[in-house]
Every structure is written in structure tokens, then in C-alpha cells.
Records
---
Amino acid sequence: MLWTEKYRPKNFDDVLGNIKAKKEILEWTAEWKNGNPQKCLFLIGPPGTGKTTFAGLIAGEFSDSVELNASDKRSYDAIMGVVGEASSSMTLFGNRLKLIILDEVDGLHGNDDRGGSRAINKILKDAIQPIVMMANDPYSNRIKSFKNKCQVINLRKVHTNSIVSLLKKVCVKEGVKFEEHVLRTLAKRSNGDLRSAINDLEIMAKGEEKITSEDLDLVAPKDGRSNVFDAVRTILKSKTPANIKGAMRQVEADPSLLLEMVTENIPREYEKKDEIEKAYEMISQADIYLGRAFSTRAYTYWKYAYELMSVGVALSKDETYKKFARYTNSSVYTILSKNRSKRDLQNRVAEKIGEKLHTSKKVAISQFPYFEIMFQDDDIAYNMMTYFGLEDDEVKVFRSRKVKVPKKPKTKKKSTITSKSVSKEAKSEETKMDKETLKTQKKVKKASSSSASKKSTKSSKRSKKSDEEPKKEENNGGSKEKQVSLFSFK
Ligand SMILES: Nc1ncnc2c1ncn2[C@@H]1O[C@H](COP(=O)(O)OP(=O)(O)OP(=O)(O)O)[C@@H](O)[C@H]1O
């Protein structure tokens, strides 16, 4: 068994740090157990701070639990299938409470999780069972719609001293000797992530009686290495070149990304105009050297670029600011990734349309302008959405508005065609036709009588005959028409 599992807290007292959060969680659990339903408990915090641990301990307080993890498929149907029913119904026997656990809800994405957010929102609305959700990123757009339906608990990184004391306890239990400063270095490097601290300790202690500072090389410096934000923060917060160079050694990001991120965040940290100006001067110099490195492949230029974008920018400020500044990702990279997700969406829609219309994706995409026009009409849009099996967000390819579900037509008396109504209608039609026939007969008679006075009786007879023939035809034609109209009406 991994040490992280072996030393996972077995009760609430064992959980380190986050004292206020622990108290709120205990109160929430007690309320449910006393028969007072509560909003969903939403635990948000960085990895390894105890979200899963808390969820497990809460589950122990209820008679049953259902869990859905990031590794499970979390489409609308999958979520509704696994937790939809469980969350909105009571057990037949004794109304026992069943805890629903939804992990990493900020990680819902892609085809496999299509409709996942919609399902969670529905569950949060209808649930009568306790729910605990977890997420790492408090700023994720994916969790925005959940937050106001939940009791949000922010878990903070665990303090270095608490981590050191836990690592000591583990060493004692595992019979491993240690030097305190080594454990402290491990704890600091973990940056509040207890899982990574315990994992590192396990790697270092494998087959050893004692862990020393030499063993520290066995474990790579933690996330600081890949976390560009940490490097950017050090550059903008510090004025000590040694610290900044240390942070730069740990970061493994592409220099262009680092340059973009420093550029983006300078005005979020620096307050004076002239220091912002100096910092951007350094950035433009760094950019020139970076460009040269790429174009000439003389990568020694990178060194200059790195120095300018880190120490150069750091020393541009007059003083260090003690404030909380929310740093942002590079907008250029964000736009690029947004475009990529837009393209992915278009391809998905084209695939669905192509499948139904038996065309390639390319042909389907070429038809998009026509679809855009057709999708302007609510009813057509709804029908097409159903026919092609498009999700709400996929419709955005053709229109920005949501497609309204058409209202059912008001239940008028069904226009069933009874034999009574048909005969009534037919009668009125017949009388109309009869009147018209009479009129034409009268006209014909008039015409024939006038012609009789002018022509001879023989010729008048002939003419009468020839006049009467079309009249008969007219009559037949009229009744035929009547039959057709009746038939089509039926
Ligand atoms: N507050 C804590 N007190 C004691 N041990 C902890 C605490 N937080 C984490 N741990 C240790 O770290 C391990 C991982 O913690 P846990 O799975 O709860 O983290 P998490 O916040 O859910 O992380 P992730 O978001 O990556 O799933 C646990 O098995 C436990 O050993």
C-alpha cells in the first residue's frame, strides 16, 4: 500500500490544517444527520490538501455513498444514470441518507463529458440527498454555475510546519531515521501538497535506514518546475536576483510562454508608471534576443533573454508590493487555445451532420452558411437540433441564442373529420354548386332564346343542341371539381 493511502487520516482529528473548513464540514454533516437538509458541499482547493480525504470521512458518517470520479465517463446520460436517481430519491426502508460524491467537477470537458455540467446543475436542483463535490481550480469557468447552488468551502495549502510534523510521524512509524532539515526541505518543496510530500518521502526512504540531504536529489523539485505561475510570481514579487535565478532554474516552460506571461502580468503587480515602462523595455529587449535565438539557432541568446525577462523585469520596480494580485494566463495562448476549441466544436458538428447527410466533414462544413440561415428560425433550429443530435453548445456554431423548445400547441378540439361534418360541408358545397349551375342554365336559355328569334328553327335547334353540350360538360366539370375538392379535404 502506498504511504499516502496508509497515512490517510482515519478521522477528522487526523486531518491537518484548514481548521475553519473542518468545523464547517462537521456542522454540515451534523445538520443532515439531524434531519435538516443542506445545500451541496463544494470543496475547492489545490491538489493534496485533503478534499478526497474529507469526502471519505463524510461518507463514513452516512449509511451509503455513490461516487463519480474524473476517470469515469461523465456525460449527461452517464451522470444521470449513476447519480441522478440516487440523489433525488429516498430509500424505501427507513429513509437512509446516501452521500453523493462528485470529484473534480472542474475537469468536465470533451466529448466524453458532453452535457455533464447540465446534469450536475439538474442534480443540484432536484437533490434530496447530501452531495459533496470537489474541484481544484476556484476560478474555473466550468464551476461558475454550480457555486451559487452550493455551500463553498475553500481548502488552503497545508502549512510547512504541519507537513514536517506529519513527515516525522511517518518516519517514526516506518522506522526511518531522518535529519529535520531534510524533512523541512521536502515540506517546503511540496508547496502545501501533502500527497507530494509523503510520496517524496517514500521514494527517498526506499531501502534506506536513514534519509539524508543527498537523497533529496532522488526527488525532482516539485511542481515549481513546471509551474510557470510560480516563476512569474517570483519575478514580479521579488527583488533578490538569487531567488529569481533559482525560480528560473526550476521552471521548465518554453521561454516564449514565460515571456508572454510576464508581459501580461506586469501591470497587475507594478503600480508606478515609470517602473512599468522600464519593465516593458526589458521585455522588448528580451523579445529581440529570443527572436535572434530562433532565427540564428544560436541558443546562447536565450540566456540574455531569460536574464532580461526575469532579473531585468524584477529590478525595474522600486519596491516590492505586499498585496494579492490575481495573475492571468497569456492572452495570446488563451486565444490560440480558444480557437482550437472552436475548431474542435465545428468538426464535431460537421461529423454529426455529415453522418446524417452521408457527406464528408469538409462538405458538411461548406454547408454551414446555409445552416446558419436555417437556424435563425426557432422551430427549424429545434427540429434540426433533434434530427442531427446536436447539444446546446454545438448549436452555437450556427447561432448565439439558445434554441427554445417549441411550446406544444394549445389543445384545441381535435379537428377530426367526422362523416357528419363532411356531409354538412358537402351539402353546402352542393347547394353552392347548384346555384351556380342554375345561373349558367338561365344565361344559356337567354342566349338561346335570343338566337332563336334571329335564326331559323332548324338552325336554332342545332345551335341549341351545340349550346347545350358545353352546358352539360360544364355541369359535369363542376361536379367533378366538387368531387376532387371533397376528396382532397378528406
Ligand atoms: N489535510 C490533510 N491532513 C492529513 N493528510 C493529508 C491532508 N491532505 C492530504 N493528505 C494526505 O495526502 C493524500 C492525498 O490527499 P487527498 O487525496 O485528500 O487530496 P486531494 O485534495 O483530494 O487531492 P486531488 O485534488 O489531487 O485529488 C492523502 O492520502 C493523505 O495522506
Note: The CA atoms of residues 452 and 458 lie 9 Å apart.
---
Amino acid sequence: FKINETPFSDSYEIGDELGSGQFAVVYKVTCRKTGAKLAAKFIKKRRYATSRRGVPRNHIEREIEVLRDVGGHENVIQLHDVFETPNDIILVLELVSGGELFDHVCAHEYLNEAEASAFIKQILLGIRHLHNRFVVHLDLKPENIMLLRRGEPRIKLIDFGLSRHIYPGIPVKDMIGTPEFVAPEVVNYEALSPATDMWAVGVVTYILLSGGSPFLGRTRDETFCNITSVNYHFSQTYFANTSQFAKDFISRLFVKDVSARATVDECLQHPWIRGPDIGINDIRVGATINLS
Ligand SMILES: Nc1cc2c(nn1)-c1ccccc1CC2
């Protein structure tokens, strides 16, 4: 990937901090030439192979390659430019300023089904764009899903720090992700695949509808045990008034066998996502249904 030779501050003026992760800080920036408002993600470079601080260069390169490949979809963050300083690599990204989906859910405790279904449909459209390019996100969670603008149900998938290309027939194994969102194959150190993202969609859906986390235990090991035994339930407290469609949607994703787990295309066809607008003429045998 080509890195800009000129200094970052020659082209951009730094504004407010938008968010931060373990080794990254994101600022709102203004392009000096055009006045455009963008986001700049400063990723701390790892200085020594034995260090635990910072991100190894090849991981940053992988995030850039993935962003370059998946850019251009309305539910996926767009990469505009890359700069380097002695300590950081700077990704200039499309500005999303509606805050994290995580905060939006917290502000409401949980969402009604229509709002949750609209958010999940957008997440599925973004994921379909990734999976069609053999990209697997591997860190889907409400913190990594941003609202384009406050109060609008339009989302962008933002953090591709753990994402990678996974091609059929080339097994990839790795112990990564956030414990309460990882699928059984991650816990069991078995091959990762697009199905790994679909399990996480189930966890995000469960959280949007209830505010609770389906597999979270008191310890990391308890969480992992709940995941590998698919030990979850729809607590009456939050799911008493939830539709069968919503519960069926979630239960098709919490499937241990990756070959039996719903794919992104099957999810987009599910009645909970297609909603009441299914007309009889959509159900002609063999019809190609245009989902866009
Ligand atoms: N880990 C993160 C975290 C964030 C972002 N990217 N990666 C981001 C990207 C574009 C606009 C705004 C943000 C803030 C949060």
C-alpha cells in the first residue's frame, strides 16, 4: 500500500477526539485544501518484536489492504489516505459522527423490534459486501458499529483491525476477537470463516433486543463454556414480548455447526428482516429477489 510522503499536518488540521481503542486514537480532521471533514485514526506502531505495546506493521498493512478492498459500500467505512510518522500510521477515513451503536442501545436500554431489525439489516448488507469479497470482519460488536448521524438508523462497520481475507479451502485459525462475541470455532481454535461473523450478528441482535449479553459469564472461562455448549436462553424479562420471528432469527445463528449456521444471504431473506412487506409475488419459485 502506498503511504503519503508529505507530512500529515500539511494536509489536515486536527479537531476533536472521536474515539479511541487500545492502540488507536481517532480525531475529527479538516482537509486544508477542500475544507472536507474526515476522521484520522492514529495507530501506534510496535517498536520491537518483543514489545506488547503498539500494533505490528503487518497487521496495520492488513487492515489497510482490507479497507482498500471493501471501500465503496454505504455500510462500510471508506479509507481516503494513509500517512506515517515515527510512532504512528495514520488512516484518513470517512467521517461517521453519530456515535457507536453501543451507546445508542445503552441510551434506550434496548430497542424495539422494528428499529433493531432495521439496524441488523444494514449490518447484514455491510457484511454481505465483505463476505462477497472473501473478507471476514472477526470483531463485530456494537462498539465497532457506528451511526452515520445521531438518531438516523444508518450504520457503518468501522474497525477492520482484526479483519482478513479468508479464501475457501485455506483454513485460518486464530484466537482473536472479544470473548462474549466469539463463535465456538474460535474458542476451540478451529477454522474461522464467514460463519464466524454470523454468530456475532446473533449476539449483536440479542443485545439490541434485550440489552443483555447471551453468553457472558462471571469469568472468561465461564463465557467460553457457555459459547461452546451454546448455553443461552431468551429470558422472560426481556423476551416475553419478542416475536417468534426475532427469536427464530437469533436461533439460526447460535448454531455450533458452521455448515448449518445461517449465512448472510439467508439472514437477509429471513422474515424478521424482510418484514411485513413480503408480497405474494416475491414468493414465486426460483424468482431472484432484488434486496437492495
Ligand atoms: N477502532 C476505531 C474506533 C473508531 C473509529 N475507527 N476505529 C472511527 C472511524 C471513523 C470515524 C470515527 C471513529 C471513532 C471510533
Note: The radius of gyration is 20 Å.
